[in-house]
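Give me structure tokens for this 339-residue protein.
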Amino acid sequence: MEEPKVLIISALWNSEKYIGEELESVINQTYANWELMLADDNANEATMKIIREFMARDPRILLMGNDTGRHGSHGNNRNLIINADTKNDSYDYYAFLDNDDVWKPDKLESYVRKAEEVRREKGADKPICFTCNMEIIDDQGNLKDPDFASTYQYEIKHPMDSFFTHRVFGCNLFVDRQVFLALRSMMSDPDFPETISYDNFAYQTAAALDADLSFMPKVLMSYRRHGENTTKGAVYKTNANYILRMALQAGTVIHNNAYIARDSIDSIDYILKLKLSDEKRKEVLEIRKALEKGGIYAMRIWHKYHVNCGNAIRTAANWLSLCLGLERKYMNREKYPEL
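Here you go.
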């Protein structure tokens, strides 16, 4: 019996500094039944030269262009989700890959074996969306943090937490075909908001579909942090400097929480178009109302789902912002379109 097939998708840009190491880590996976689809977003010639060399070495590495008009990280990843799999049910699972990260040799095998275990225990129709622990490396590959899950308290405790705080990293997502096709159906809408990032949206979609959202505590990849990251401004460690920054930038925190609320409301409006169970539809509608109204209702929903934003300080700040209505003024899209 043939092993399940995995499609790895990666939005490609100018990545000549790191992409060789990344592709080498994919080729060296202990699990062999995969294909990698790269989407070229007008990458420079130095990057494309490396890509062509790897394609000559391994026919599992494929390349597609991007003439959709959707560019940048969000646009190119959306393009991939819509167009990468055109082989009529030939893939069972999907993994996402950034251009500067490095996979441990057993990453895909660990994911597939866990997915097959879930299939045996919960049935072949159970949707799947896994995440894993990571280590942090710098631009030179030096280890900076061996256990990112502990530093950032990355594991999401309740499925519905993802609607209140954006803590999902697309680079370590692993989903099954059911979740992937749901994403494609929604993101194919020409009016799909460009502000919605695929990573949190994928996790939220899976949560609404009652997917198995297993977290793999083993470190399965190296997440590279450097000045060219789109998340270079993020702060992960909870220490005195983090607390001081939160206090001094309270306005920015409230502004960011308003962005998350608006983004989640937009996501929910698409997710509600899916075929959900009555229970999940009720939960999603409750969360939408809480994000929109704030106040006492939001407080009740927050406690009902035991929302956790990763650490006590971040959770308390987000709770205050939402339940006290501190972000309500930013919910006016006409007055604050920049969100």
